[in-house]
Amino acid sequence: MTVKVLVVDDSLTMRNLIAAALRSDPEIEVVGSAADPIEARAAIKALNPDVLTLDVEMPNMNGLEFLEKIMRLRPMPVVMVSTLTAAGTDVTLAALEIGAVDAVAKPASATPEAFRDLIGKVKTAARSRVRARGDAPAAEAAPSAYRADPRHVLAIGSSTGGVEALLTILGGFPADCPATVVTQHMPATFTASFAARLDRVCAPVVAEAREGAPLQPGHVYVAPGGVAHLEVAPGLTPSCRLTAGEPVNGHRPSVDVMFQSVARLGRPMTGVILTGMGKDGARGLLAMREAGARTLGQDEATSVVYGMPKAAFELGGVERQLPLHRLSSAILELCADPAARSVA
């Protein structure tokens, strides 16, 4: 299948570089370009592209404002391409929350080769599932009798589409949620800002994981992007361990590495695999299930990319698949103190 792409950027040089990089792949056809959202709106109607690449800073209308209109009126896969994405700022996260499938930074060297990462992201975006803003059901409320099991460890893995999914799930957690470790595939510059964003909008304390940090209920630990795998070290109080090993399944941090470390803890545990391209996390989730963990996977209908959850389900690692809006309450039920469950 040929992927039809519309390139939107106010710089003619950037439009040409992005188009040249994308045209180097025989499965991508650049059907047009636009210098601002007004031109882009007309081009979308005329050319019906499969994927849009979109800059943030443009004349006539901010890229984020245009993205919001697209996701409300004509949902389609969008990959953000901007100098602002390099710093992992709130602008990038806002774009992903609004509905952009992914984001890449404009590289320092102005050559088509510098945009190679964009090719894979555009092809993934073409296979993604996007919805109009406001179409998703609200997350189910936490169980009324919920009380955290202080021994329980929750591990969540995600990739493409994971920003929205994690905001939905963690946004439904109470302040005394289970000790939670998260691996989300993200560049190194993004995860600190992402953790800070989650910390602002969620009841639990959310922070980027640091070496030796003890796992505590009411806290969420996000794997640092690009530099290390996040593992959970065993002990009377388990702790975060950051290991600078080689990428696994093409990723560092890897969901598989995190899940496999949790599987070795010998304590109550739950594993959850969310939207994402590829199969990272499938074997690790199976290891958790075989070690006695309860395991959940995001279903196909609510996954932006039904790759990682599908691979884990087909391998036997997923005990139960649920839509995104039901996952938060289901996770809390599995992680609750057994005494609280018996009372309920």
Automatic annotation (TrEMBL):
InterPro entries: CheB-like (IPR008248), CheB_C (IPR035909), CheY-like_superfamily (IPR011006), Sig_transdc_resp-reg_Me-estase (IPR000673), Sig_transdc_resp-reg_receiver (IPR001789). It catalyses: [protein]-L-glutamate 5-O-methyl ester + H2O = L-glutamyl-[protein] + methanol + H(+); L-glutaminyl-[protein] + H2O = L-glutamyl-[protein] + NH4(+). It is found in: Cytoplasm. Residues 4-121 form the Response regulatory domain. The modification 4-aspartylphosphate is found at residue 55. PROSITE patterns: CHEB, RESPONSE_REGULATORY. It comes from the Bacteria. The keyword Hydrolase applies. The keyword Hydrolase applies. It is an enzyme of class 3 (hydrolase). Keywords: Chemotaxis, Cytoplasm, Hydrolase, Phosphoprotein. Its EC number is 3.1.1.61, 3.5.1.44. Phosphorylated by CheA. Phosphorylation of the N-terminal regulatory domain activates the methylesterase activity. Residues 147-333 form the CheB-type methylesterase domain. SUPFAM superfamilies: CheY-like (SSF52172), Methylesterase CheB, C-terminal domain (SSF52738). Pfam families: CheB_methylest (PF01339), Response_reg (PF00072). The active site is at residues 159, 185, 280. HAMAP family: CheB_chemtxs. PANTHER family: PROTEIN-GLUTAMATE METHYLESTERASE/PROTEIN-GLUTAMINE GLUTAMINASE, PROTEIN-GLUTAMATE METHYLESTERASE_PROTEIN-GLUTAMINE GLUTAMINASE. Contains a C-terminal catalytic domain, and an N-terminal region which modulates catalytic activity. Involved in chemotaxis. Part of a chemotaxis signal transduction system that modulates chemotaxis in response to various stimuli. Catalyzes the demethylation of specific methylglutamate residues introduced into the chemoreceptors (methyl-accepting chemotaxis proteins or MCP) by CheR. Also mediates the irreversible deamidation of specific glutamine residues to glutamic acid. Belongs to the CheB family. This is Protein-glutamate methylesterase/protein-glutamine glutaminase. The lineage of its organism: Bacteria, Pseudomonadati, Pseudomonadota, Alphaproteobacteria, Caulobacterales.
